[in-house]
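Weekly structure sync, notes
Attendees: PL (lead), two postdocs, one rotation student
Agenda item 3: pending single-chain targets
PL asked that the sequence for the first pending target be pasted directly into the notes so everyone works from the same version. It is reproduced below exactly as submitted, 188 residues in total.
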Amino acid sequence: MKKITDRSEQFIENLIKLKALKDLGRLAELRRGLSEATRHQAWSTVQFIGGRLDSIVDVTIAGLFAIHPEHCGGLNLGATWRKLRKEQLGSFPSEDRNRGSFEHRFNRLLACSTKEELCEKLRSFITVAKSKGVPIDYFALYQDVQYWEGGKSKIFWAQKYWENSPKKESKDHLQPNETTSEEALCRT
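Predicted structure, written out during the meeting:
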């Protein structure tokens, strides 16, 4: 078993344990943390799982996890959104006219200048991922949101969303029994 040294990793591990306990009451409390009006109702559970009450990132990530508690490492949110877009619309050509809503939503995230602003917009992304059964890498999401204002997370998401290398594109043409390394990680 991996030794967890980072507080954020421990926080996500505790969310995963909470899901395993099937404590629906606590998960409901965490979802309340996504609304400023009811955020205080999430605080006892945020504290219970080792989060900081004064951290919008802790409260938001906990609430997002409570909406869609399917965690799988390997993809940042840019890559996840790209995957969702491809599943919804098929190919990823640059001249695709139907990409508008996906691009617009993604660009709204990239336009966020603060992590507080970003936290307000993430819920709709997680809801779409849940509706399509696509897991989220909550370890990566936590780190990306925490350090959003440095700009590196934004750039990394954009690179993964608009990535157009032939090697990566070849994943779209796998044979029925083939899996990518990212998919294999999610099954374990």
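Discussion points:
- The CA atoms of residues 148 and 159 lie 15 Å apart.
- Residues 7-67 form one domain.
Action: rotation student to compare against the earlier draft before next sync.
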